[in-house]
């Protein structure tokens, strides 16, 4: 059972036994579920404003052997990527406290350090490919569609693999490039399509939130974007920034060719009177 559901089940079962401090801890964990895997009993107690002993008693009151078991189960859930949106959503529906924009800024700065060296290499691989396929599913599909649209302005050989027509993956050939967006919760379909693309000896560029996942193995370029958020949705600000930066890098591989394509597109737009 996912940690968030098990946690709520335990809280409900122990409802009549919970003290005032226990309820404060419950509220804190519901508001900041992504923080629990990184807390000690002492750091959680300080954040909530209770004693360390209160944090330990709370865990045992819910049926855990101690705080370490509570924290480790949350950590395991996080590593497996199975934390649900419902589990991250506050019961009262109010936005969590804290400066949400500050967290996005922190994500952007962290992401910049992650991708600084890999971005130009990935761009060169994409530009030199016979065909470029972009894929993503579920929460990551919007990112894939946006990346496809952006790349299409500068490359003529870009194709979006729609999740509803996933069999398009059979068109991928050796030397082609598959660019995949894969963020929480990770789509099983995307992982399967990546395995099929690797079997054709296509080159893989993966946009994801870390390098420790099993699906990252045998990937030519990994572009890591941080998605930490105080909201119940994971933040896609940094992934979008990576997409924008990647497209700029691809365009810069051969500026003359890029400019020629953009000029042809601009003339067509003017001829068709597309914009107001």
The secondary-structure class comes to: alpha/beta
Major sheet: 5 strands, parallel
**Unreliable residue stretches:** none
CATH architecture heading of the largest domain: 3-Layer(aba) Sandwich
Radius of gyration: 23 Å
Keywords:
Rossmann fold, elongated
What is the strand and helix layout of this fold?
Elements lengths: L2 H11 L6 H12 L9 H8 L3 H10 L5 H14 L4 H4 L11 H16 L2 H10 L4 E4 L5 H12 L5 E4 L15 E6 L5 H12 L3 E6 L12 E4 L12 H17 L1 H17 L5
Parallel strand pairs: 1-2, 1-3, 3-4, 4-5
Helix pairs in contact: 3-4, 7-11, 8-11, 9-11
What does this protein look like?
The protein is α/β, with parallel strands linked by helices. The protein has two domains: 3-97, Winged helix-like DNA-binding domain superfamily/Winged helix DNA-binding domain (Arc Repressor Mutant, subunit A), CATH 1.10.10.10; 101-271, Glucose-6-phosphate isomerase like protein, domain 1 (Rossmann fold), CATH 3.40.50. Helix content is 52%, strand content 9%. It has twelve helices and five strands. It has a five-stranded parallel beta sheet, sandwiched between helices. Helix 10 links the parallel strand 3 (177-182) and strand 4. The termini are far apart. The model has no long low-confidence stretch (mean pLDDT 89).
Short description:
With 276 residues, this protein is α/β, with parallel strands linked by helices.
